[in-house]
Every structure is written in structure tokens, then in C-alpha cells.
Amino acid sequence: MEVKEISERIKRLQEEKDAIILAHYYTRPEVQDVAGYLGDSLGLSRMAARASARVIVFCGVHFMAETASIISPDKKVLIPARDAGCSLSESVTGADLAAWKAAHPGGIVVCYVNTSADVKSNADYCCTSSNATRVVESLPAGRPVLFVPDKNLGAYINKVTGRDMELWHGDCCVHERLPAPVLLERLDEYPGAIALVHPEANGSHDDRVLHHPRVVIASTAGMIDHARRSTCRQYIVATELETIHELAKSCPGKTFIPALRSTICGQMKKITIERVLDALEKEQFEVKVADEIREKARVPIQRMLDVK
Ligand code: 13P
Ligand code: SF4
Question: Distance between CA atoms of 48 and 26, rounded to whole angstroms?
């Protein structure tokens, strides 16, 4: 079947089954194009909380579908590829975090949304790259803060908030490929361009990048918003490659240059259009979280959603 025909079937089935497709900007272009809602991690979590549909087909990686299921336990949450994982999320377990907390009594735990439900159930606050700084700034001063699992996002937050959070040493295997020398080289190569840099990027917290006059550090949605509003015509994109699909669509006439062509998240690409159709037709693969973990994990997620 052609992509066009599959997409049409998906659109029809969405209505028939009272389903909504939520897709992250890192999924394949044809998957983004059939989504009822396309967003970054924070936008997707907010949409999962708000959606009235009976079924949510989550086109993203496992922790995202799990988060949707925690927020909306009455909905059937499906992930089209059961094995779509995340290197960052897998760098810490609930047991690891419990041991880390025990070694730092009195510490407040902030976990990035890229974590399992088990990890979230051991955390006080959750955040995404869109609201991490605001979440950390809202914490009482003088208390130790433990941040899991992204060392790059954590170091970036420490720099901009002046806090001294303890950092877990996890990273995203895609954004780790973007150290400061690569970003600075690209800025030299394109002297008229603004570099849009994700805070998960290895170079995001390097002073030469952080204080560079042509660098904007932002979450995926923040990058798109900046490119839409700015008068600059040329951008270096330092994040997952597929983000350029939406950037180009929403900013006609502007040019987007990948900082590195190999920044591809293979886990997100497991969500193919054929699998989205299968997920809808067979109502597979359902993501559920055990009640005991869900109730605890819901608390830090709700706090994250409550931070404006
Ligand atoms: P955002 O969606 O918050 O930009 O995070 C990027 C990411 O790596 C998602 O896995
Ligand atoms: Fe995980 Fe990185 Fe892929 Fe995002 S881009 S899902 S953090 S591996």
C-alpha cells in the first residue's frame, strides 16, 4: 500500500475508533503528517491530559506513552512499536534512584520526563526541556537537589539558574554527538545563521556556546517558536534531524542546516506509518502502569504540568 493510502485509512480509523494520534517531532515525516497533535515532550504530556478520545496512539518512545497512561489511566494508550526505547531513560532505574536518594538525605529529586514510571515514582518533581529551568527555580533555596538522568540538561540548568544540583551521569546518544567544537565550527561556517541548540546537546552548557550571541538554547517546541518569530532567514539545527520537517513547514522561505546529519534517533524511527495503521486496526500495543507505581509517579508529573 502507498503511504497516501495508508495515511487516509489512518485518518478514517481515527474517527471510527474515537482515537487521537499524538506524535513527537522526532518521528518520521509521514507519521508527523497524520498526527492529530504534533508536539514536544511537554506539549504531548499536556495533550494526553486534555484529550477526550477513547484511544491515544502515542507515536514516540516508551516513556512518553507510559507518561500518557499515568496521566490518563482511563484511556487506552497504544504505542505502535513496543520496543521503542530511549538511551537516556534506560540510564537509571527506580532502584538506582532510591539508592542515590538514600546517599543524599533531605535532597529534592527532579527527574527529566525521559525516565521510566518506576523512576518517576521515586521523584518529587518531573520536568521536560521546555520547563526544566522554571521547575528548578520554583524549588526552595538551600535544599540539595538531585537531578536525573541527563547530565547535559542538568549542567545547563545549573549554569542558568546558579544552582548546584547533583547530576546523574546519563545522556542521550543522539544529542551527545553535538559537543561545543561541532557547534562552534558550524557557527563559523554560517556567519549569518542562528544556531538552535537543544539543552540535551553535549555542548549546550559550554560557556562558548551558552554565551554566543547567535545561539538559542531551547526545547524542540521552543526552537520552532523562535524560528517562526525571528526575522533571521538561516538556522543551524542542533538536535534530532527530523525536527527540520516541522521547522521547514512552519517557516517557509527560511533555511535549516543540520549541525550534524547523523543526529537520528533510531528508536523514534521504529514508529513507521504501517505500524501506526496496525496499532489502530488491532488496538495494539497497550501501555499500562501498575496502580501502585502509577499513583506515586502521577505526583511529580502533575507538579510538572502545574508549572506554567
Ligand atoms: P523535547 O521534546 O522536550 O524537546 O525533548 C527532546 C527529546 O529528546 C525527547 O526524547
Ligand atoms: Fe531518547 Fe535521545 Fe531518542 Fe530523545 S532523542 S528519545 S532522549 S534517545
Answer: 18
